[in-house]
Amino acid sequence: MGKTLYQKIWDAHTVGSLGDGRTQLFIGTHLIHEVTSPQAFGMIRDLGLQVKYPHRTFATVDHIVPTVDQNAPADPLAAEMMDALRRNADDFGVTYFDLSSGKQGIVHVVGPEQGITQPGTTIACGDSHTATHGAFGAIAFGIGTTQVRDVLATQTIAMESLKVRLIKVDGQLKPGVYAKDVALDIIRRLGANGGIGYAYEYGGSTFDNFSMEERMTVCNMSIEGGARCGYVNPDEKTFAFLKGRPYAPGEVEWDAAVERWQSFASDPDAAYDDLIEIDAADIEPTVTWGVSPDQGISISETIPDPAEAGSEALRASYQEALDYMQLPGGTPIKGVKIDVAFIGSCTNGRLRDFREAAHFLKGHRVAPGVKAIAVPGSQITAVQCEQEGLDRIFEEAGFEWRAAGCSMCLAMNPDKLVGDQVCASSSNRNFKGRQGSPIGRTLLMSPVMVCAAAVKGEVADAREVFEVDGSDSAAA
Amino acid sequence: MALDKIISITGTAVHLPGADIDTDRIIPARYLKCVTFDDLADKHFYDVRHDPEGNATGHPLDDPRFKGASIMLSGPNFGCGSSREHAPQAIYRSGFRAIIAESYAEIFFGNSTTLGMPCLSASREDIEVLGAAIEQAPATAVTIDLKAMTVTFGATTFAITMPESARQALTAGRWDPIQELLDSEERIRAVGKTLPYV
User: Are A13 and B195 within 8 A, CB to CB?
Assistant: First the structure.
């Protein structure tokens, strides 16, 4: 019986058993940012410990960065966090991609961009969207701050092994259907807690054909389905993406690295704890209507009516969501008015996302009264977009073109919803208050669907707004 | 660094019904603007306890009948979403010492265990029965027994579950693993040598 990539990486990184079902697991690469690391550095200082393997930790600043002007004077709390990260990186010899480096960005965009994210390794970060890095055939997962302390001090954590569920998507996605829709569709099918106890292996021809950016989008949202990590087996696309990047192996080591990386891919006869099969042709452009990422429907469906829910628990949760969203059950999602459009985040803030969005947006105008912002995921992404003139397309359409950061995904910087504004968002969470206003409302969708909503001023089918027919895609 | 053996917890409880209560709801992102966890007490569930103008909404957590509760009751997938340890820290620093819910998101569960705050799972029916009992008599003493894996209040007892690794870590006083991790320095180095770094 063969092994999965998960099992192979787990075995290679096992330091020992802690005797109670937990394993002491070596963390190959550790990523940190300003929000969840300062307390961990405080703890190791209090305990008189050192950062044991500083060359395995990389830092950047993303959550609190203002995106109108990155260098605008920060509020005192943000400034204190920024100063703490600088001091901690300096004191302990950690590489820090700061605002002046030209390499700063959302930690889950920076890792792959720098070639730090590599197959066959464990990657941890005090951030639940660390699952993103699984796109490269790594076991990548979010950890708490006390575990950040553990990684800093020992390069290991105590953890229990997960089961592995293979999610196989086969076939061709229909025109206008994107990786984001695949992610939202999987979460809708399996529920926000469906992945608890599992690592997700994404396979099938749809994933084989996906670009690395598309794989990252789906792996990123594994956590929204309850799975702490999700991965795609490494292949030629993975290696081609990494080749030549600053921290990727050089020419001399390259062939040996590829051979090693390939050896971690799941064996053809690997056994899985569960299998889900999805036909790509069944996936539609998907939009969330509620306050949990599993509350999604296709653009042509109506918002669920609590009266028709299958159980009392479901009815109560539908009603709670609809009350918060101020949406009536049983009515179409298409046509729901929006106030804000946001393209960006670690889910959909990469070059390919902006290329695809700009391709369809070109020649259209954002509807009056809609505030639309496009926020590149990193300084490098910003430069790449600007070299291709994408920034001008967004600006001519009425979007604001911003500087790199987490922006409106999570409301730790000036980009926030106001009051009960409705936001069409390419981010990953539609939780109550997620985008900064305690009564703000979020509708998750793909970047191209965000563009369609921005142009119409309401939730719209991008295939109708932009006459998408499949022959016409920036990525084609 | 000897840790307490967490074997039994007794206190009053408060019920926060609902599914998929995420860590953004438990601690809004603006309270993550800090470099310590010191100021998180009483910030838990801030935006559901207050309206946008800052007025109290009459949330169970602010109901005088449940003041001083140290056990929180909730629904399935509690603590989902962001990995922020600020969420269990805020709950703990507001006086809670255990949670009983239908199920938990894994990162939240791990963060809570490492703090020494057990997250026990129970059936929806049992949680509802307990919720109804404390609604009737808020001063009801609730006892969680991590050896017997039961919850007892008045004459009622029901079973709870928890992954065995976490139960052992809590009851043996090994819930913060830092010393054990540090102890295997030699083996860490040996494994690290086999793993190329970037």
Answer: yes
Distance (Å, rounded) from C-alpha A153 to C-alpha A141? 18
For chain B, the domains span 8-194
Contact A431 B84 (CB under 8 A): no
**Burial state string for B82-115 with b = 16 or more CB within 10 A and e = fewer than 16:** bbbbbbbbbbbbbebbbbbbbbbbbbbbbbbbbb
| Shortest distance, CA A223 to any CA of chain B (angstroms) | 7
Among A206, A240, A274, give the residue marking a domain's end.
A274
* Residue A476: per-residue pLDDT: 43
Which of A320, A410, A433, A143 is CA-nearest to residue B16?
A320
Q: Do A41 and A169 reside in the same domain of the chain?
A: yes
Whether B180 sits inside 8 A of A18 (CB atoms) is: yes
Is residue A21 less than 8 Å (CB to CB) from chain B? yes
Distances, alpha carbon A299 to alpha carbons A283, A329, A341, A365, B90, in Å? 11, 15, 17, 21, 38
Asked, for residue A279, whether it belongs to a domain, the answer is no
A330 and A263 fall within a common domain = no
Closest by CA to A99, choosing from A450, A405, A411, A434, is A405
Encoded amino acid at A97, one letter: F
B178 reaches A (C-beta below 8 A):
yes
Helix crossing, A107-114 with A212-220: angle to 10°?
150
Considering only CB atoms, which chain B residues are within 8 Å of A80?
A: 35
| Min Cα–Cα distance to chain A from B40, Å | 13
Residue A54 contacts B, CB cutoff 8 Å: no
Distance from CA of B72 to the nearest CA of A (A): 19
**Same domain, residue pair A262 and A301:** no
- What distance in Å separates residue B160's CA from the closest CA in chain A? 18
pLDDT in tens, A217-230: 999 999 999 999 99
CB distance A47 to A4 below 8 Å: no
Which 3 state secondary structure label does DSSP give B89? Answer: helix
Shared domain check, A360 and A296:
yes
CB contact under 8 A, A193 and B103: yes
Mutate to test the interface with B, among A14, A24, A242, A345 (most CBs of B within 10 A): A24
Contact B52 A21 (CB under 8 A): no
Total number of domains in chain A:
2
User: Which CATH architecture is the domain B8-194 placed in?
Assistant: Alpha-Beta Barrel (3.20)
Kindly give the parts of chain A with pLDDT less than 70: 470-472, 474-476
3-class DSSP state of A371: strand
Neighbour-count burial for A26-41, b at 16+ CB within 10 Å, e otherwise: bbbbbbbbbbbbbbbb
SS (H, E, C) A260-289: HHHHCCCCCCECCCEEEEEEHHHCCCEEEC
Q: Are A192 and B80 inside 8 Å of each other by CB?
A: yes
What DSSP line would sit under B2-31, residue for residue? Answer: ------EEEE-EEE---S--BHHHHS-GGG
Check pLDDT > 60 for residue B102. yes
Q: Does B53 touch chain A (CB under 8 A)?
A: no
Residue A312's domain spans which residues? 285-465
* ipTM entry: 0.96
Instruction: Quote the CA–CA distance of A103 and A122 in Å, as a whole number.
Output: 23
